[in-house]
Amino acid sequence: MRQDIYRQLKTCLDDDRLAAVASVVSGAGAGRQLLIAPARGDQEALQVGSLGDPHLERQVMAQATEQLASFQSQRHRFTVEDGGDAHPQPVDVFIEIHPPRPKLVIVGAVHVAAVLVTFANVLGFKTFVVDPRTAFATPERFAHADELITDWPDEALRAIDINENTYVVLLSHDQKLDIPALQVALPSPARYIGALGSKKTHRKRIEALQEAGSNRSSIKTVAIERIHNPIGLDLGGRRAEEIAISIIAEMIAVNHGKA
Question: Which of 187, 152, 157 is nearest to 169 (CA)?
């Protein structure tokens, strides 16, 4: 059974699929394990293994759902009925979260994007730069990015497969690129969506998005409040390098559950 769990976990990791492994570390059923992976696209939710007690598994599943959302691995104490004993028995379970490798998708091959890719590479992100304007999106400027994509943003983002550990950053300052990107990113499970621009620019962006959504059912229920704007933590800097640092800092904060 344990081999089945590890085999399935490897498949999840290879497929960039979020998963959790719950292991009983003390109490009844010590050593038992359960792999949990939420539904993803057309893939059904996975549950491989057993903790030996249906009541315990329900408790663990509920707790794992919370931790999958926060990416936080934690140990918890639960209780189970032990045969005819009238007193519930404590069971300690460690729920370890295995997130997919983080992705950074940048729309807009501007100077800030080049610096941001450098920082993201250091942090282990797989980096994508998307811009149909080939005068900006050149291999010479973005040789350090994992992928440079010159397709239209909505096509590119669909092909990238945005998951729960994907960060989408809009730097183009151009609604022709921003709106198609947001139409794909906002309904997705992306962990972070940020857009460069002043509050006035962002208001116009939202108006354009809502106008486009009036004719597209996929946009009607989008939570526009997900967009971080002004993008980045307010560090006071205005240089491209400083803006990139503020963006990466906000991404780190979001990753660790900080407001």
Answer: 157
Q: Give the contacts of 74 (CB within 8 A, at least 6 positions apart).
A: 67, 94, 95
Percent helix, strand, coil in the chain, to 5, is: 40, 25, 40
The angle at the Cα of 148, spanning 144 to 152, to the nearest 5 degrees, equals 155
Backbone angles phi, psi at 112, to 5 degrees: -60, -35
The single residue listed with the structure tokens 């208001």 is 203
pLDDT digits (tens, 9 = 90+) for 79-111: 887 655 567 789 999 999 999 999 999 999 999
Give the CA distances from residue 178 to residues 40, 124, 156, 170, 199, in Å, rounded to whole numbers and listed in that order.
Answer: 25, 25, 12, 6, 15
Which residue, chain included where needed, has tokens 């397709």? 151
Token pair for 99? 């997130």
Cα separation, 143 vs 53, whole angstroms: 53
**Following CA atoms 163, 169, 173, 175 in sequence, which dihedral angle do they give, to the nearest 10 degrees?**
10
Q: pLDDT band for position 135 (50/70/90)?
A: very high
Q: pTM of whole model > 0.85?
A: yes
Order of all β-strands in the sheet with 19-26 = 46-50, 33-37, 19-26, 89-98, 74-80
Tell me how many degrees the CA angle 100-105-106 measures, rounded to the nearest 5.
Answer: 160
- Write the burial class of residue 56 (CB in 10 Å: 0-12 exposed, 13-18 middle, 19+ buried): buried
Structural domains in the chain, CATH included, are: 2-98 (no CATH), 103-255 (3.40.50.720)
